[in-house]
Amino acid sequence: MLPIVLDRTAPTSVSAQIAAAIRELIANGSLQAGEPVPSSRALAAGLGIARGTVVAAYDQLIAESYLVSKPGGKTTVHADAVAATPRNLTVRADLASEKIPHSTQPTTRGGGENRTRPHRRQSETASIDPRPTTRRNRGVNDSAWREAWRSAAENQPIAPADTVQGLVSLRRAIAEHLRLMRSMLVDPDDIFITSGARDGLFQLLNSLDAGHSVRVGVEHPGYPGLRKVIEYAPAHAVQVSVDRHGILAQNLPDLDAVLVTPNHLYPSGGAMPAPRRLELLTRAAARGAIVIEDDLDSEYRHIGPVLPSLWELAPDTVAHLGTFSQVLTPDARIGYLIVPSALHEPLRQMRSELGISPSPIAQRAVAAYLESGGLRRQITKRRRDLVRRRNLAARALEPYGAQMYAGATALVELDSEVAARRVLERCLAHGVEVGDLAEYWRTPVHGIVLGYGDVPLEELERGLQVLADALHA
């Protein structure tokens, strides 16, 4: 999906905005000669607009020789598309004027930490667990993946320089992957190979020379995945409240860093809108804090526009944490860290002295898989699967006002703690353990939350039926 942000309040037509955005992507090298653009149907679905609007934009670009379309084939970037295209639509300019959209996500405000949680009767019969915190290793059933590992296992010499920052071949493959899948233009020299997001965060916090225990702002509530890392690093977490649009930047205290998940506000699955992103970056820079962007589930956004990463907006003050654990398998133990140039030397020195480097065999295997296009095929397949699962959840929970955004979570708000407890207990009695919405918010927001992305399909169908019956009752 192309990172196109539409402003429906602007006097410029939506089709013209799309055309201008694609010209910009060609101008800055995100789209290169001969590369395909999304089908008009796929782009229209991603942006939530009529297909005819995208067709009109493509027709205009074809007439201007930016794109070329062959009968029965894909629409691609014209071979003669010039790189000197006037940049009449820049990311920052668009984001500055983008309005925060209306959202029905639950609002989080400050409140007491020790309020009573709804009682949940435990059940030994619970066998289906679609809670958002439950993640499963899906594995990779792909002959290209197996061949990449066989090839990587061959005895191949490694340059000494590769052992510090990571194999050059993998860093280049990651940069190309990010360009093709996210339109992120990353210099391979800014990439450090890690064993995953936790490893990347730990290394980053240890490389920050704050002269004291590093103060890290964290979303509260927010995704718990990286919180434990802060406890084991020379750092301590400082809770910063959030609302339905993400972290409240105006509440940032004196910090050295702030850790956020802008592409997946947890557990709702929404994304931080453009104005809030800019506000966060501006206020963090004013406090001298580095923004650490956890790219949680970004590859699996399957509805709505793809917003630029925080790193793209401020590469000199944002560190970007990426991992292949979800799109491939945690067993590969490969991730990456994109950091500002000022942090290169501290990171390289620490990694060199401690001998930190993921397995060269794993690095070669992932590099080969990326270069073959295998990961892009896996992501496309996974997105189709998520759309199917989302449709199942939408049909089952539509009568109860289910809220579903990006990622793979569904929320159902209820009127009271008593109602939520009854639904939870009915589900448990039938062997299904869904999440309690009150456990994620400090204010009295009651309801049910479930993750539909990793549960086996037959279990998901049964779990949705049990939940629907409990809500109906």
Description:
Residues 12-80 form the HTH gntR-type domain. The chain is of the alpha/beta class and 473 residues long. It has three domains: 14-97, Winged helix-like DNA-binding domain superfamily/Winged helix DNA-binding domain (Arc Repressor Mutant, subunit A); 143-373, Aspartate Aminotransferase, domain 2, CATH 3.40.640.10; 376-472, Aspartate Aminotransferase, domain 1, CATH 3.90.1150.10. Helix content is 38%, strand content 13%. The protein has 16 helices and 14 strands. It has helices at residues 14-27, 40-47, 51-63, 91-97, 143-152, 162-165, 168-182, 197-207, 227-232, 274-286, 310-313, 344-354, 360-371, 374-397, 417-429, 457-472, and strands at 67-69, 75-77, 191-194, 214-220, 235-243, 246-247, 257-260, 290-294, 318-323, 335-338, 403-404, 409-414, 435-436, 446-451. The strands form three sheets. The protein has an eight-stranded mixed beta sheet, sandwiched between helices. Strand 7 (257-260), helix 10 (274-286) and strand 8 form a beta-alpha-beta unit. The chain starts with 13 loop residues before the first helix and ends with a helix.
